[in-house]
Amino acid sequence: MPNTSIMTEFLLLASADTRELQLLTFWLFLGIYLAALLGNSLIIAAVACDHRLHTPMYFFLLNLSLLDLGSISTTVPSVMANSLWDTKAISYAGCAAQVFFFLSLIVGEYCLLTAMAYDRYVAICKPLHYGTLMSSRACVHMAAAAWGSGFLNALLHTANTFSLPLCHGNVVDQFFCEIPQILKLSCSDAYLREAGVVVVSLLGVSVCFIFIMLSYVQIFRAVLRIPSQQGRHKAFSTCLPHLAVVSLFVSTGMFAYLKPPSISSPSLDLILAVLYSVVPPAVNPLIYSMRNQELKDALWILSQLTLFH
């Protein structure tokens, strides 16, 4: 019976059956990865270099881009390497590290999205108190809490998951090491230990989700009371990108982890994993910059400085 004391590696899901499809997978993931690197790096550079963007909203956006860069860099490069070199193996330590860093960054991102919802709530519903409630110190504390929550959550889950005895081989039905897939390899009686930790985490996720939804209920009520159409448009333009990112992130992530076992299949699990782990980091920069003139102006100035200096 295999267990964690003698397990040396895991076998990930093959990217494709033929060499041609493996290379196609490599180029597809490379394109997505480069798009995510470029988009998030541009946002980080624009916010860092343009003093007009040194506000709480853009401070949180900079942190979101850092988390997105980290999360996609945890999974996609290994997929590309496996596709290019026609291998499926990942070491036991490498798998544990991937689980830890990915979960830390994903949970941190969810907590940061909650803080961003609070920022928009204060900006629109309590504008007179915005400078006090969203001071530099408060923003740094909220960002640090998001990063710290991700770290502690990942540490708890990783330590608990990789201490379970594994009775069902070492084949992980996913393109990266994911806790639900690793739990399928554990002994049935040991599974309940991590299940308890998952329930506690889900309670925290639910609290954040309820907070985000209540914030947006108040935001929409306040926006609809704004008399001018231009004022309503400006308020919506700062909120809708965040709401789109939250919707994409939460809907795909929750369905991936909470879907009934009866509808689970390797192909569905793969599609959901791509949707919540690969797509958001690539499209978030586009969503946030599409209707944001301030960010567009900063990116234009940055491109001019880069080209002519």
What does this structure look like?
- This protein is an all-alpha fold and 309 residues long.
- The chain has eleven helices and two strands.
- The protein has helices at 19-49, 56-85, 92-125, 130-133, 136-161, 179-183, 188-224, 229-258, 266-277, 279-290, 293-308, and strands spanning 9-11, 89-91.
- Strands 1-2 form a two-stranded antiparallel sheet.
- Helix 1 packs across helix 10 (279-290), helix 2 (56-85) runs antiparallel to helix 10 (279-290) and helix 3 (92-125) runs antiparallel to helix 8.
- The chain is globular.
- Mean pLDDT is 85; it is low at 1-5.
- Average predicted local confidence, pLDDT: 85
Helix content: over 70%
Q: Biggest β-sheet, characterized?
A: 2 strands, antiparallel
Give a count of the beta strands, DSSP E runs of length 2 or more: 2
Radius of gyration: 21 Å
Strand content: under 5%
Poorly predicted runs are 1-5
**Helical element count?**
11
Order of helices and strands: EHHEHHHHHHHHH
- Strand order within the widest beta sheet: 1-2
* Measured distance between first and last alpha carbons: 63 Å
Could you say which structural class the secondary elements and strand pairing correspond to? mainly alpha
The general outline is: globular
